[in-house]
Amino acid sequence: MLQRSIISIFIVFGFVFTLIWACNQDAKKQQKQAKVAEKEGIIDPKACVSCHKTQVEGFLKTGKGRSFYPASNKQKFENWNAKPVYDPIKNFYYQPFQHVDSFFVHEFRLENGDTIHSRKEKIDFFVGSGNQTRSYLFQRNGYLFEIPITWYSQKKIWDLSPGYENGSNSRFDREIGGECLYCHNAGYEEIANSSNRYSSFGQALGCESCHGTVKSHLNEMVRTKGKSKNLKLISLGKLPLQAQLDVCRQCHLEGIKVRKQNSKPGDYKPGQLLSDFYEVFIPATGDFDFGFASHAERLQLSKCFISSAGKMNCSTCHDAHTSIPVEGKSTFFSQKCLSCHSNSEHETVCLELKSKNSDPQKSNCLKCHLQNAGTNDIPHVSSTDHWIRKNISKNASKSVGKIIFKNFTGNKFSTRDKALAYLQYAENHGDSFKLKEVSQFLKFLEPESQLKYHYLKGDFWPNGLDTSTFSRSQNPWTWFYWSQIKKKSAYPFITQLEKACEMAPEMIEFQYRLALANEGGPKQEIAYQKVLDLNPLHVKSLSNLGFYALQSGDYAKAEILLKKAIGQDPDYVLANENLSRCFMEQGKFSQCRVILNRLIKQFPEDDRYKQILASIP
């Protein structure tokens, strides 16, 4: 998942409509914009310029207003002539480069100075403002994936993307689902049950993410020539405090979101309470362990926030329509502090202001009261911990090592919710320890969640599992889990797998598993071709089809398919083994030796490859 380059979303107390009169002068322009909005379903912030010029122009300079772009020469600021990034564990180099107005990443591997692997992917989208980082996406047949390197703005370097370091480089296979795009993009159309396929890609975040359905407001203003008092728009300053904060917490709340039993994806809208739709659990190892998007939870730990009795919120320090100044940042925020705390008050408590040469108007409150450090999820990034407190250096606590889950709201939550949080975390992080913790709460989970637990754990069919609800399930994943556990237990499973594919025809993993199930049968090649229709470069399908061509003696076809698979993943063992056999049977011994030597280097303790190599004439 991007597992996570996050954009700054902040709140203002109210959207001040002081330029309504301008709607009369620009009625024709607004009508045209409204028609475009109605057709496309989203509003470009520029459609609001005629009435809200200052807010729009300021917003477009913020991180939120620069959260997503089609890859363009106009939007670049990175060094596209930098040295390649090297992953020493996976032994891949990544070279970012620009060709004319297009951008690429070249993955390659060297052996004795020669390039033995080369794969190039064209970048389709820039994601992130670049205030901290910028990530890159490419799409194939509408399926969206992340590029394995990221630009880290503070250090002005390229490096492996967050979550790709320390041997976890998933290369070009990280899927970008709707929950990833939600905090970066507006107006995308996700194909249901496809995991990461889209019928259209939207644009950077706009007014809707904070103010609700802007189209209704724009149409109303056009209809009444700006005279209506029914703005049909959320005025944030009029919302209860928690609802105001939740507009920011959509994205600036680092944790595991557990959906309430009756809520569905997309149900939450600005103006509502997140707690009506989610319980959020914060995984951390200690007080000073915070994530890149932990702003909301950390702020609410602050005495400033608690003592303000609802007066302090995100907009106290951040204006969603104004970017933070690059120069004089500390002074800018210190003035925010001084708007509540008098100079005389600080003269008695603040060491910096006690010094003879200090100027209260130039003080740096952040230095003493906000920790600035690396986050627990993004490398090369120094971020501000929003927990405001005294003597942060003295209050530092050591991490406890073990990850503890805290419920964000502090409300009484159900055991079911906590178990689902553990289950979700274990799935996302491959954490077997957290999966074991789920076992003690199994009886509190719905049967479908119990099924998922057994699938993730790799269990055979468990006794006592209530299957009565499975056949009525509208969740294709339930049918998939059901089929795979039955398969492992040597029970008939095709009916359940076919049902999963029927419900989610564009879920590549389901279609691939069905193709595997058809191996040796008349539908075998048709099933694999269906996978390749969705993703023409699906490595396992190419490799398996290459194997079948090899079995039938069609060496030319086998060689093409296997080379194509290895071109995508040079470390895919089965493709390499079958290609070496393909070369052997054709008498291409020198090429066979090359493949075998690489397999021996990859698996030095496996004597099979050495024996085959020794048998070559």
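That was protein one. Protein two is written in the same sequence-then-structure order:
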Amino acid sequence: MVGPYPSGSSLAYRIKAGDILAYSLFSALTTLNSTYSVRGIARAIYDDGTQDIFSFQAESTVGTPGTNGGGGGTFVATYPGDHPIAKDGWLVEWYFGGPANAPNNSIWIEGYIGSTSTGTVGGALAWQLVLRGPVTPMAESTLGTFDPVGRDNWPILLVQGTVLEDNTVGTHVCSLTLTPRAGGAMEFLYGQIILTGAAALSTSAYIDDGAGNVLGTLFNASAAGTYGFPNSASTTNAFLTGGIPFLISGVMRLILSTATSTVSDTQTFACALRFRPNLVPKATFADNTGSPTITINTYTVF
């Protein structure tokens, strides 16, 4: 039962003896090398006038991006059954605060009241969700709040790297491809391509449907140079002029590409995008000819 605590106006949830408080931690940070701690406090006032204070702490230790195209995914830690309720009463406070080093909206918490000590948090009707939201130094999740995350508050992923062509004769098509994770979505913000080579043929950035069918061209050019987009003078497609967001989801892809018929040139790609929390996009650098040397300089969430 949800309502104001009888002796005041604060939102409260009815609890019974034997209920438990449990929570799940969701993190997008499986690509970063750090340990992040989330702490929380809850307070229950019982019908006999006594009260309990509960403390919570969760830590997630996450690794490095790994090889080209690696990283991403979702870390989920579930902590059921470790805070039993002693008596009938009201849950009047519960909040979580995030670590100082966590990127914006990259760690989320869900809190539950459970009427049984068995089962999976959120996996049965016996569990009641009582809070959901991000936990960062600038945001606390509190009892009775269920925060949606608008795109303006999505975390930002920065990707930058190079593809060094080998000496295989032929046309080298180098690329950076960004794809959402299953259930994810991303919004393109800006990018840069540095196309080098005496016989540079073309460079472009575009969104396709995952099968090579172009849905919209962000930028294209046909000479060596440094191109920032969507503000590059070589951006001629009307797709960019309407002020609409560039959203990618499902099997869609954002592709930054260069083509040159010279060999042993280095092509440089960079991109910034927002992404749906907990689902870091996959970034893949490639060359369709030979065996390139790939260097990932940045793959970082902010």
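The CA atoms of residues 180 and 281 lie 5 Å apart. Keep this in mind for the problem set.
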